[in-house]
Amino acid sequence: MRALTLVADRQLVVAAVPPPPPPGPGEVQIRVGAVALNHIDVWGYRGMAFAKRKLPLVIGAEASGEIAGVGDMVTRFRPGQNVVMYGALTCGICRACSEGRDNLCENVAGIMGFHVDGFAREYLNMPQRLVIAVPEGVSGRDAACAPIAFSTVQHMLFDNAGLQPGETVLVHAGGSGIGTVAIMMAKQIGCTVITTVGDDSKIAGVKALGADHVINYRNDRFEHETRRITRKKGVDVVFEHVGADTFNGSLLTLKRGGRLVTCGSTSGPTTTINLMQLFQQQYRIFGSFGATLRNVAESLDKMAGGMHPVIDTEVPIEDVATALRRMEGRQVFGKIVVYF
Ligand SMILES: [Zn+2]
User: Fold this and answer.
1) pTM for this entry
2) Positions in the chain short of pLDDT 50
3) From ligand 1's centre to the CA of 59, what distance in Å?
4) Is 256 left (phi over 0), alpha (psi -120 to 50) or beta?
5) 155 and 172 Cβ atoms separated by less than 8 Å
6) In 189-329, which ranges are continuous DSSP H helix?
7) Residue 69 parent element (H or E)
8) What is the C-alpha separation between 326 and 319, in angstroms, rounded?
9) Are 325 and 167 in contact (CB under 8 A)?
């Protein structure tokens, strides 16, 4: 069978690999249909010195597929059913796992597609515990964006930042994969959304998703514009994933007691912050990574209710390297989905 394999930094090949054995007890075999790309794939493609992993590595951190077979003691699934997979190999028994805080698992054995082989292959076996059924009416293409893109945002905005209806939120990079989702999820509960884009060509797209105010950060300083838009009150929540270029500006846009939630540092990982400002303004800063199994189900429910991911492009696996380079260059609006 075929697998999209990283053999060296920036070298992806479609390799022939042996198919998995029949699914063992408690396991299902999944035929992968669609893989959605994320920034974690760009990090992996570029190479990361600190990441413990061995090449060659099958890439793909979020995907959807169909149950192709079930092992003994599998009760929740039957062949033909559409599913998505949770991509972190959690233990299922530690305190965090048993409390449903899966992304804080104490014994996680790696993130699929980054530390260990991922989803960009035709078949794989998974423990049924890490598989989530896709509701009726949700396409395989949309479902592929549930485990990371939708779930990361669900976890950031609601579990961490505690976003409430009617609040004002600044969403950085509104045209990015997670930015588009953040706009839709915040608007769905009646928030006011201010967002940034780096190119005027993305303004119409983010407005169509419901953004109330759009700032081109290349033309205007977003922190000044945000304070002007909010009449100097500031926003309740900032949705951060840009990092060094924006972090301090993001803090400046918060109202007293405001919350900043971040899941990324695309522009660089280090910054200095003013601690007096931090405690005097009583900011709350949340680091967020991944999501819980419950967040994946919540995301799929939102899709079943009509919230569709914005798809930038759909490409065959042979074109993934080109797609990853477009993501690196921030030329993408929404998600890139790869098909076998
Ligand atoms: Zn655990």
Assistant:
1) 0.95
2) none
3) 23
4) beta
5) no
6) 203-208, 222-229, 247-253, 275-280, 293-304, 320-328
7) strand 62-70
8) 11
9) no
